[in-house]
Amino acid sequence: MYTIKQLCAKAGLSRSTLLYYDSLGLVSPSARSQANYRLYSDDDVCRLERVCIYREAGVSLEEIGQILSLNENVERSILEKTMAMLNKQARSIQEKRAKISALLQKDEYELGSSFWLDKEFVVSTLRTADFSADTLLKFHGVLEGESHEKHQKFLDLLGFTESEMKYILDKLKSNENRGKSIK
Prior knowledge:
Blueprint: E1 2-3, H1 4-11, H2 15-23, E2 31-32, E3 38-40, H3 42-56, H4 61-69, H5 72-106, H6 119-128, H7 133-146, H8 148-158, H9 162-177
Antiparallel strand pairs: 1-3, 2-3
C-alpha cells in the first residue's frame, strides 16, 4: 500500500491534483490507515497511470471518468473524438503559422529567431505524414547532395544542435559506406 505522499512522488503529481482526482471519483484510496490516512493499492496505482496517460493524450477529466467506468467501445469513441479535435487544432496552428509567415514575407522582415519554421514543427509534420526514419534520412541526403552549406543552414535555422547535425551527417556517411543510395 502507498501513502498519498508516496503515490504523488511515484506519479509525479501534486497532492492537490491527486485529491482533485479523488473528488471526481477517478482515483480513490482503497483503504485508510488507523490514523485515517489514505492508502492506495497497486490497482489504484494502475488506475492513476491510466488517468495520467489519458490526460497526456488530451482527454478531458470528464471523459476519463467515462472511459474508466464504461466499456471499450466508449473508450475508442472518446479517443477518436480527441484525435479529431487535436487534428483540427494542429491544422489551425499550421494555418496561423502560414499566415504569420506570409505577413513576415510581405513586410520583408529578416528571417531569424522569429521564423515560424522550427525543428519540432518539421519533425511533427513529417511524422504525421508517416515519414519513416529511412525516408527522413533520404530527405537529408537529398539536401546534403544539393549543397552542404544550404543543408547546414536549413538545420541551423530549424534549431538543430551541433551534435544533432553531426549525428545526421554521420548517419548519411554510414549509409554511403554501406553502399546505400541516399537519393
